[in-house]
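A brief tutorial aside. Many learners find it easier to grasp structure tokens once they have seen a single protein encoded end to end. The record that follows does exactly this for Alpha/beta hydrolase. Read the sequence first, then the structure, and try to relate runs of similar tokens to stretches of the chain.
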Amino acid sequence: MTNHLTRRSQSDRSQSRRFLSRRTLLSGTALSGLALTAGTAGTARAAAATTPHRTAPTPTSAPTHRAATPETYTAIPVAPGGGPAAADRVHVLKIGPRDAGTVLVLVPGMFGAANDFRLMARDLVAAVPGVQVWAFDRREENLADRSGFNAASTFTSAPTSSPDPAAYYLDGHYRAQDPASSPFAADWGLPLTLDDLRAVVLAAAGGGRRRVVLGGHSWGATTALAYAAWDFGGRPGFRDLVGLAVIDGGVLGAFDGNGTPVQDSPEEVRQRLAAIEGGAVFDMTISGVGLGSRAESTQIWYQLAGWYAHHDPAGRSVLQPRLPDALRPAAPISNAALLGLLVDTGFGWPNDISVHSGHFAENADGNGVRGWVDDGITPISRVAEAYAGPVPGVWEWYWPARLSVDLDVADVYADTDLARSLGLRLRHGAGLDVPLYAFGTSYSKGTVLEGARKVAAGSRVPYGVYESDNGMNHLDPLFAATAHNTATRSLAQFLRKVVGGSA
């Protein structure tokens, strides 16, 4: 595929640093200390690209309007998990016709949540009649306090006299989940997640009235494949499904290409379990971005950035004065530009938390504020719409460390002694007999598709569809503009075949 990765000037490159992926950060590497000076002479910006895959540079547009397609966010009760009673439920974001004969259930990846898939789902149901999409929110989402966004969610312009979500969260008024009072999360691993997911899959099937395709992004793809191989009381998980769709993730070395192999040796697992037993029940990887030290700090910052960029994209950034020194631009920027600063690959962020969006405007507006210019496949307005929420969100606040351990061990995709010791029931991978779709970006350098082909070769998969776009970063498939989203287009083709009964 054509590579349209953002190009940067020599002076820009000299101001950035090399980042490691969030999976590398599991070993404790920190991302603090990013040196970004965004004054007139030192903007880390992306040069306009010339490939046909790019859109012409245009100023950031106003927030997009919600589609007419039915969209609901629904709770589904699940078995007790040892935590608060209010957490004994999961949620699904349902998009598309209620009478659809096929439901695509999508699982978000590490620190991901249901709103990862809203834009993709809209595109899919528009392209494939007879399909509804259900985006899965794990039970951990019940621990997040998003009420500060709810109070402000009716704003259509910059907040002034109304409640301010930045003050609610950054001044510490929200309800935080303290790891010390959350020992129950030590047991929130893959077995519980898959039991919860099965409740969703069975609800989607509607007693056999609908067919279910299960998919996911990143570690959500790993989760979907684990479900297919899982033993549910003697019944293989793949018996619930008519297809599998994995997006930039999976098993059997799917993540090896990013230079951070899974940590699944017995000694590594023992050490990680000991840390969880000692109270480190939440995965702290994403705190390495440098936006705060709590489990939820970074996720709050990103949602705040999305919220202000969505509601007042051209206005002077509300958050800029409150950014840590290492991340704060010197010159005033807009709300949209601040979101761009946090998500665009041109600023040196890791592949797995960045997109190809654009760059700061060359000149300030009449108020001395530099805005954002889209010249990539993922307009900042689409990122803002997804990140803003308020509910569901894009980022999961409290990711259980045990789930990270289990998903790493699940990479072997076999019923090993180590897997059994963790309660992983990966017994039916060889029997897998449903079609498989896999999509890879530049994130894995081809190993996502290699892993998917290994799954197919070691099973009874009737056929596989393997697509890639090395001009995409890990998050681009979730938010890219409809016309430039090769993941959505190729997945739609796969779903048409399933809906048509060829599966």
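Self-check: The radius of gyration is 21 Å. If you spotted this yourself, you are ready for the next section.
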